[in-house]
Specification:
The complex is a heterotetramer, with two copies of chain A (569 residues) and two copies of chain B (286 residues). Chain A is of the alpha/beta class. In chain A, 39% of the residues lie in helices and 21% in strands. In chain A, helix 4 packs across helix 5 and helix 11 packs parallel to helix 12. The longest helix of chain A has 23 residues. The chains are: A alpha/beta (569), B alpha/beta (286). The structure holds thiamine diphosphate (2 copies), iron/sulfur cluster (2 copies) and magnesium ion (2 copies). The site of one magnesium ion (MG) has 9 residues of chain B, from helix 3.
């Protein structure tokens, strides 16, 4: 997208300098001004210091992908310029306090004394509002809107603080306006999509809200980046929605709590990242054996082990696919954007309940930490009808049902008794060493996989139906692939995105077969989805675009890589 | 069905060894439930894996026989999800104090209104006789050939250090008193630990019925179960192990603290998701 | 094999009745008499009661597979006959105490009052020696040998006990001899292979001894059937070999202890089963990240969850293949018989040390619980040369070596400092957020996989080189496939066995390609190795023979299944 | 290199917040090592994950920075594999008492000759401010919105219940005494716990430097650290937290018990596998 369709603003500084505040304010402001807006961040695993940056894309039409390009850079400390070195071009406008950021000779900087202005108003902390005002001025926004948004943003603070921040923003605004009017910095971009009815959420929020919409009323988790956000958000709404949000002593406890909760009639989830999930794998196997529903949110980050705690990767697909000893069915869903994150989380509860299997919502740091406007989530797309039955006196939990799905009773609802057992068991849930029964129970459990396969959502085709080359992705890369394909804009090229990752819909084979060439895009080093496609459909992938430095794909690099492959021939 | 039979399961093939202390515990449990008039439909037995952990299979009630060491998190959640149920977490000493040690600590801190019964035979029964955390120093096994070297885990002392709401030790050989303790524990509001000394006739030839008879005695009638430090001093006695209720500290339970709007004991499954509130919440994101 | 080549003796009774004692005695005795002998058991997860059985095969040439056929059945309790119902034919000779076993009308039993005879000698416990004596008599063994073996067997007991057992055996012997001489029961089988130099070991012993031969000097484990045996055996030899054998508080502790031990210069292993291993998976990922050697013995049993604790299965291949978050190399070895169990365990240490990766020794209940004679293990087949280096002052643990293998130093050996870190790290082991370095480190770690692949042992071809149909197996099924193929005896049929399971040797493709038809044999319900073959070689399997009732394949059923497939065409 | 510099790593970018109590602990550690004359080549720092757990990266010595909560098993094994090393397991309160709670219990029972230093800031620092096991009742966080409800974990009392060989609490704000305690702990033969109160200036606005100053005091000079029950009574004090060495109980260590033939402190890597013995063993299977 050209500069007239999408402007990339990057803020960069130390942890603790308030980048998040400017980010949040600018997102609000631009959305209020009618722009689609998108923000993504990359940050270090530390509380203070280091070099972190946030990219805000202000666009004419919605975008939801990371770009390398920086149109407007606001460095907040001396390290920012070197941290972003490779992304700064001669077209990048750098705007900041020259004294603080110490720009090298060849990097002209538009010097704006944020701190001094803030200090004049009374406190250096107002610098962030000055910066916000400057950006608003540069984009030619309405001053009234700016002050209004300041009011909304600092709503809970004291009137004096609000007033001071307004003052700061107004000062900044005039400086920005002047730059614009003197023609030194001009951004000519007009919104073309209506966003006023949209909502702005982060990936973590989308998952948490989706869970609520799925009837989630129990979350147990042990904090682990980037999975913690979902716990925090649910905890914040726990009283309001009368749900249990418990911080467990470890991940093992969390998953066993969630299973106990489902057993007793709750709708429970856990949220974690790869390392925490590794500890839950025995519990996943328990879910398989007792045929308990379970929703597991795994927000991926680079491994192995502690790896890069605040970065992104898609390398835990194999893990969730095979986690747990023994053999049992499961479902893996990996949302492609924030709308999908909501609906997938919602649907996960329904699927878990219906098939009595663990359902994974597989996201990553990139997805959970992005913010943007999306159409307000519809609350009627998936119905919340709990699948529990009222038990009768002769109730047996594991009736050998033809489709493998035995009606699920819970203690305290009906006159029957509900027994579940991690050993191989009979229909009543009592442990058995009847080896023929074992075989029938194992077959019953595995039969559910076939039912699930039939229910699987198809992958989404993005682009021309007459494609010859198919760019395949899964999970959080959907939007970047979409934007890259739009950029390349070739009729023989289309994208295929899997949100329902496992078991993949059998119909997917048609899309894959039609392609003369398949290019796989994955944020990992071994091509885990390539293996899955091969195993499920016998399809070979011709090219793999893999990235595993902890950052998401950028539109530019994907364009570059795809075009290289296309021209290689 | 009436009386104790009410808790009698159809499963008749009990896989314990003849003479095992587990039979006594099973019998006492049935009598206790009967005498406390806890209906099978209101009762959930939660267990891990081990010989003790098979107990729920020999009872008529709801049961959740989960993973080795993981009964307490499941039990805590079951109680939280439906506070109207009577929830008992029951397993062996290896299960609760070994594999499940971390949950033991933190369940006590959380104080759910559940009863935690530990069949303490000072050995791993089901896996054929290795040392358990409570095995005495010098106890020889196929793995601890030269005798256990570790300091034995003292569940009473640790529970006191964590300020558990109710702490008791019983000996299965004494039916009357053990039943009295069980009743007190189950009716106690909050987490209640009952560590039951239980002979394993197959793998623990040291801590036999006779040994327990000779090495236990009851806390005095005028013993004050509210004095935590005094209780700790008694918990450290190892020559002869005191039996009875060491400590009672009534306090708010996990369920009391849960962030419920209604403050009711309403089970979660009876609550409809509040879509109106969610619509409202979504609007605030606009 | 006909009855003249191999006789199957089955003992059946409750747990606690001493079947193991008779079994152990008979194995010793037959081996001393010059017979190849094999024993396998199936038992319930309980300490007393239930129905357990042991099969002892006395053969002219070595066999190491389970057969359904029972030539001589010695039931020890009333349930035994119904427990074995389906394996008893009109050719099965049943020998026991009629009063105790209550045989049905149609099952003639040769009544031998074991208990009464034992009681006469002084104690019912001598019944086992009576039974042993009877069997010896039936086979026409030498009486002197019997009394000699009794002496050896009860060697540590008091002279009186030895004497009484001898008496019991002698009485039994004469009863057996009489049956033989009157022609009522005659076993005409003569040993054709020399076994006197052989040793008799169980699968657990073979693994434990192999570990010792691999230089293992540290084992940490939490008891879990069927993985406990290896811990027990190593613990029993701990003082003798000056090794550390520690029972951990849980499996998480065990694996972290093992990693700490390797770091400090020990050669450590853990032993467990699927459920315990599930808890170790975070630790496996740590091994991947810190590039620690690690040997993991996983003895499989049926899952999910607690499953069938004392039964067998091959359903944890997927688990060990993908255990741990993130991506890193590993090696999986699955011995096909007890000799292989020894050499594989030995080699596991060498490979772990050499490539600094986790190496899995994947066995199962069937393998670890079988006993038989094997040629005495050679101690020179794999050299034990620890791969540690003496550090110098400028030592850095993670030097970016071309083959990915950075020389491994340990604290206290040399003048350098050794730092390892679960975060992404620099060459010195310090945590880093340099994302380019991250990529190089990840590539370095993954490079080791290519080196490993080159070193992989090829699968073993069993049978004719001009095969058209290939029966493929992995792990403990090697001997049963071998015997079944010998039984079927068709020139177009051969077997291919994978002991080095992952990464499979690239040369394996030649064997697979040559086959017109591939039949896969696995003790699981989903065909996990089928998937692996497909993923690695793009090879499709034509037929799958799967079994998952908790029992190993029997020779007869494999013959039946293979022949059915061959004739289906 | 000389003096404290000997322990000064080349890594200069320390990722702690300015003013954090961790800096003080780092400094005291260097001084302690120097004063005890423990060479970097003989010293292994073992840690988990968290802000505290980064400490080894800022020191010059061997280090094993493993998984969250798992420092103690690794440290125990390192010491067992090479008893000539000085081994210190160091992490935060969440790491050691939360995720690692089970290892905390059982490491104490094993009594390896290692020092266990816990940076107790009563909060999860690295993951941005959730409650830790030691957080006080009522402490508000983004997850515990209405304040912590659980009974705080009392590491001193629990260590006493487990009869830990050495139990101490220190406050980083007092350099002299903390260093004295650290020295005593490191030279103690057996497991030694030092729970160091450490302000987290970013996420714990309640337990500040000032709060700790006001809510701590030292055990008296004539305090008897061999009386376990008295120590327990002191451990329960919460109005003002006693500092100092609560308890010392010298006993055989894990390494002492290890089934070694030689009884020597010889590191395992120096021992050749004994193939002659193995040949002998194989012969017995014949
Ligand atoms: C994760 C895991 N590890 C190990 C086991 C094996 N296991 C089953 S029961 C048991 C210990 C039994 O001891 P205890 O809890 O004291 O019960 P008891 O049999 O003595 O009643 C063990 C180690 C398991 N089932 N799961
Ligand atoms: C298995 C696992 N679960 C969770 C995490 C995330 N995590 C990292 S540090 C930490 C807690 C830090 O608290 P604490 O141990 O008190 O150390 P502090 O940062 O306060 O010094 C958590 C939960 C992890 N790394 N691994
Ligand atoms: S092994 Fe011990 S605990 Fe288990 S049933 Fe037998 S006697 Fe009881
Ligand atoms: S977050 Fe707290 S503990 Fe961590 S460095 Fe900052 S002040 Fe210290
Ligand atoms: Mg026990
Ligand atoms: Mg902390």
């Amino acid at each position: 997208m050209g500069k007239n369709e999408s402007v990339s603003i990057v803020l960069c500084g130390e942890a603790g300098q308030g980048i998040q505040t400017i980010e949040a304010f600018l997102i609000r402001l631009f959305k209020a001004a009618g722009y689609p807006v998108f923000a993504t961040k990359e940050y270090m695993s530390r509380i203070r210091g280091g070099s972190n940056s946030t990219e805000i894309r202000v666009s004419s039409r919605p975008v939801a992908a990371y770009v390398d390009r920086i149109d407007l850079l606001i460095p907040l400390d001396a390290d920012a310029l070197s941290h972003l070195e490779r992304r700064i071009t001669s077209n990048t406008i750098i705007l900041g306090e020259a004294a603080k950021i110490k720009p090298p000779e060849h990097r002209p900087v538009i010097d704006i004394p944020f701190s001094r202005i803030a200090a004049e108003i009374g406190n250096p902390i107002y610098a962030n509002s000055v910066a916000g005002g400057v950006v608003a001025g540069l984009f030619g926004l309405d001053l009234a809107l700016v002050t209004e948004e300041i009011e909304g943003f600092f709503g809970v603070k004291s009137p004096d603080i609000i007033q001071k921040n307004k003052e700061a923003a107004v000062k900044g605004f005039h400086l920005g306006k002047e730059l614009r009017e003197t023609g030194r910095v001009v951004f000519e971009i007009r919104p073309e999509a209506a966003v006023s009815d949209d909502i702005i959420v982060s990936g973590s929020e989308a998952v948490a809200l989706g869970a609520l919409a799925g009837g989630c009323n129990f979350v147990a988790a042990y904090p682990m980046s980037p999975g913690t956000g979902v716990l925090t958000i649910l905890a914040q709404h726990a009283r309001e929605f009368a749900i249990v949000a418990e911080q467990a002593e470890d991940e093992i406890s969390a998953v066993n709590m969630a299973l106990g909760a489902w057993y007793a009639g709750a709708r429970a989830m856990v949220t974690t990242s790869g390392g925490g999930f590794a500890l839950m794998t025995e519990g996943i196997s328990l879910a398989g054996m007792i045929e308990s529903p379970l929703v597991v949110h795994v927000a991926q980050r680079p491994g192995p082990a502690t790896g890069l705690p605040t970065r992104t990767e898609q390398a835990d697909l194999d893990l969730v696919l095979y986690a747990g000893h023994g053999e049992f069915p499961r479902i893996i869903l990996a949302p492609g954007n924030l709308s999908e994150a909501f609906y997938v989380a919602q649907k996960a509860f329904q699927l878990a309940d219906e098939y009595q299997v663990p359902v994974f919502v597989l996201t990553d740091q990139f997805l959970v930490d992005t913010y943007y406007n999306v159409p307000r989530f519809a609350l009627d797309r998936v119905s919340i009808k709990p699948q529990i039955v009222e038990t009768t006196q002769d109730y047996r939990r594991y009736v050998l049902a033809p489709d493998g799905i035995s009606p699920r009773g819970i203690p305290g609802y009906g006159t029957g008794l509900v027994g579940v057992d991690s050993d191989e068991h009979d229909e009543a849930g009592h442990l058995t060493e009847d080896l023929e029964l074992r075989v029938r129970m194992q077959q019953k459990r595995m039969r559910k996989l076939e039912a699930i396969r039939k229910a699987a959502d198809r992958p989404k085709l993005m682009g021309n139906e007459d494609y010859q080359t198919l760019v395949v992705g899964w999970g959080s890369s959907m939007e970047v692939i979409k934007e890259a394909l739009a950029e390349i804009d070739r009729p023989e090229l289309a994208g295929l995105h899997f949100t329902w990752v496992y078991p993949p819909a059998p119909e997917a084979i048609h899309y894959l077969r039609q392609a003369e060439r398949i290019i796989m895009v994955e944020n990992n080093s071994t091509g885990q989805f390539v293996k899955l496609l091969h195993a499920e459909f016998g399809v070979a992938v011709d090219h793999r675009i893999l990235k595993y430095n902890g950052l998401p794909f950028s539109v530019e690099e994907l364009v570059r890589e795809i075009v290289t492959i296309l021209t290689e021939e | 069905m009436m009386g104790v039979e009410l808790y009698q399961n159809k499963v008749t093939d009990i896989s314990w060894c003849p003479g095992c202390g587990n039979f006594g515990i099973l019998k006492l449990l049935k009598e206790t439930f009967h005498e406390l008039n806890i209906k099978p439909e209101e009762l959930v037995m939660v267990s891990g894996i081990g010989q003790a952990a098979k107990t729920p299979h020999y009872l008529r009630c709801h049961f959740f026989n989960g993973l080795h060491g993981r009964a307490l998190p499941a039990a805590t959640a079951i109680k939280a999800a439906n506070p109207t149920l009577t929830v008992i977490a029951e397993s062996g000493d290896g299960d609760m104090y070994g594999e499940g040690g971390n949950h033991f600590i933190h369940a006590i801190r959380r104080n759910p209104n559940i009863t935690n019964i530990v069949h303490n035979n000072m050995v791993y029964g089901l896996t054929k006789g290795q040392a358990s955390p409570t095995s005495e120093r010098g106890f020889k096994t196929p793995v601890q050939l030269y005798g256990v070297a570790n300091e034995p885990f003292n569940p009473i002392a640790v529970a006191l250090a964590l300020d558990a709401s109710f702490v008791a030790r019983a000996y299965v050989g004494d039916a009357t008193q053990t039943k009295a303790i069980l009743k007190q524990a189950i009716t106690h509001r909050g987490y209640a630990l009952v560590d039951i000394l239980q002979p394993c006739v197959t793998f623990n030839k040291h801590n036999t019925y006779q040994w327990f008879r000779e090495h236990t005695y009851y806390l005095e009638d005028d013993y004050d179960p509210t004095d935590r430090v005094a209780a700790f001093a008694r918990a450290l006695e190892t020559e002869r192990l005191p039996l009875g209720v060491f400590y009672i500290h009534p306090k708010a339970t996990f369920e009391d603290h849960l962030s419920m709007t209604d403050g009711q004991n309403e089970p979660l499954f009876r609550k409809e998701p509040d879509l109106a509130k969610l619509t409202e919440l979504l609007r605030t994101k606009q």
